[in-house]
Amino acid sequence: VAKEGGADGPEADHVQRFVLLAGRSLLLDLIALEALLVTDQRPSSSVVHLRTAMVDTAASGSVTAPAWATRPASIDAGSWSVLQDALLPQRIAVSLCDCDLDLLDVRFVAASGLQSSDLPSHDSISSAGSFLGMPGLVTLLGVVMLGAGAGLEHRRRSEAERLAERILGDLHFWD
């Protein structure tokens, strides 16, 4: 690490230590992120299933370090680009704070959000369905449990009020 302006001493050592700590933190984060992307099986979504042949498409990322990409063969490159713009973040910035706290600041600017108009028409996209076997029955059971809980709470309050009236008589102030 180059020392600024030929400065020696504790400040230069602090700068070097900070750069090494920040670099190590960033490297560990990137290694963890890369490990999350590696799987033994083909990716499968619990929301949407996409079963189609994939073809190469324009690389994404920076010009100096592009990332390879694929897209479904039945979706044109323009529609795929619109979908990616809606899903991927607009900007991720990592800043190293040269201060006493040795902070690593990560700023994330999210995309505008996915709209229905951003989705290309595609026959191979299908909903994964409910993760519950019978969602209507589960909803009904939840409503019944909610009603039972409300009834028990009403009964508990009534019993407490009767007990308070019996103990305190005419001295009750909760009305």
How would you describe this structure to a colleague?
The protein is of the alpha+beta class and 175 residues long. The protein folds into 3 domains: 1-38, no CATH class; 48-127, no CATH class; 135-171. 42% of the residues lie in helices and 19% in strands. The protein contains 3 helices and 6 strands. The protein has helices at 10-37, 77-87, 135-168; strands at 48-50, 54-61, 66-72, 91-96, 104-109, 125-127. It has a two-stranded antiparallel ribbon. Strands 2-3 form a two-stranded antiparallel sheet. β2 and β3 (66-72) form a beta hairpin. The longest helix has 34 residues, at 135-168. The N and C termini lie far apart (74 Å). Mean pLDDT is 75; it is low at 1-5.
Mean pLDDT, nearest integer? Answer: 75
Gap between N and C termini? 74 Å
Question: What is the domain total for the residues?
Answer: 3
The helix fraction, in percent, is 40-55%
Order of SSEs: HEEEHEEEH
Amount of beta strand? 15-25%
The total strand number stands at: 6
Total of DSSP H or I helical runs spanning 4+ residues: 3
* Backbone shape: flat
Cα-based radius of gyration, to the nearest Å? 30 Å
Structural class by sheet pairing and helices: alpha+beta
Low-confidence spans: 1-5
The largest pleated sheet is described as: 2 strands, antiparallel
